[in-house]
Amino acid sequence: MSDQMPVYAMAAILIGLFLFDMVRGKFDPFAPVWLFVIGFAHVYIVQAILYREFALRTRGDALVTEANTRALWALVWFLALYLSPIGGMVARFSPRAPRNWSTPMTIGIAPILIAWGLFCAWTFRNWTNADASMGGEPGYLERFPILLLLAGILLIVSGRANGVSRPILTWSGIAIASLYVLIWMFNGRRSHSLFGVLALVCAYYSAREKRPSFVVLAATGFVGAMAVTLSLGWRSNPNYDRTVGGFFQFVGDFKPTDILSNLHIGGNETGSFTSEKPESYETEEYGGFLLMMDTVPMKSDYDYGEPYLRVFTTFIPRPLWPSKPVHGRAQWIAAWQAGSESERDPFFTGPAIGILGATQLNGGALATLIVVGGLALLLRSAYEYYRLYSTTPWAQAWWSVTYFNAWLMTVNDDPFVWFYYVYGYSVLPPMLCLWFIYRSSEGSRAPVSLPLGGAYA
Q1: What's the farthest any 2 CA atoms get from each other in the chain?
Q2: The pTM is what?
Q3: pLDDT digits over 390-441, tens only?
Q4: What ranges do the domains of the chain cover?
Q5: Are 77 and 10 in contact (CB under 8 A)?
Q6: Pick from 256, 137, 222, 232: which is nearest to 184 by CA?
Q7: Within 13 Å, how many C-alpha atoms sit on residue 188's CB side?
Q8: Nearest-angstrom CA–CA distance, 262 and 256
Q9: pLDDT more than 70, % of the chain
Q10: Which of 8, 159, 164, 377 could form a disulfide with 169 if both were Cys (CB 3.0 to 4.6 A apart)?
Q11: 248 phi/psi in degrees, rounded to 5
């Protein structure tokens, strides 16, 4: 059981962190650390325990122990930097958030964002159903419907902006955000559905400068898990017509126990709750992490952080660079081909390898130290910036459509997928435009004077 000692140590650390914040009265469900560690725990604690037999059989005791130990010290390193005062100092020296907020402007731009979001969702759905060969266009259209969610969040925040209650705007925003969740459940995309649930709750409570009760948090967790389960089940279930009517029939037949399969408490890779177990868990995040630990660099080369170039190259239109590569993909595929239990061709895609699988592919232990430390400082700095200006509508809206990316950092092909997957070229540009518009409208007036931590210190 020596291979499991680091796993239980991680569980004890996270439980202790939660209890420590509770005792101090500092627990904030919208702090990014919680979504980060939820994703981290899901992969490196839950999957490490449930898939132990598979891991030992395929990779051996020594490597599994090494991998679990890597996860333990990476978590400790992340928390050490996240809890340090560095993030607060960065936030204080960053350009301040705007105080101004124009409700008429929000009402004016919301219909544009809603129309754009609905158009992209409808077009993406039609192209997908037609199984047409559209190159990379459907992928982009899958991302831009999040502007529909952004419109809903802006309206929710406007419903309480500047201390004035506007219930019509609040409920309009809730309806639009809920529509976003339903559309992406219907399109079978679990991440977008979950984004909608998390952003809606954050915007509603942030605009009121409050935090939800544990009852509300439990309900949010259930709704989020149900949205993910329905999205996966609807996407893979062949027993219902692929129509709106068929979808609601499917929802009516939904069994809450199906949620367990998505939490890896039961079920198989198809998402259906059953006692049957797959022969291999290689394509789960923990299995991918073990593969990278076993393969790179002994059988396949490091990528030396090449995937992170996509943070910049994503914004170069393909017509200007027709041969633009997917940076780092070649090394990712080469690692799978060298270490997989199955034969993998050059067009192999799909399974994520989690944050530690990605950093192992980047450059091993040293890359893990650098990347995990950088993410800890990025998340804490962004959170402290939000806390510093948490009474301003712009910060409330920005954080509502930003903080959930902490979860994506832990469960994808690399920890910056969230930026070029959707956020960097869809949500961030409108929020930056509003930042510049509102800041320029304030002239040279003195900045807001708030203690670090704002209303929630």
Answers
A1: 66
A2: 0.89
A3: 999 999 999 999 999 999 999 988 999 999 888 998 999 999 999 999 999 8
A4: 1-283+390-409+419-442+449-457
A5: no
A6: 232
A7: 16
A8: 11
A9: 87
A10: 159
A11: -70, -30
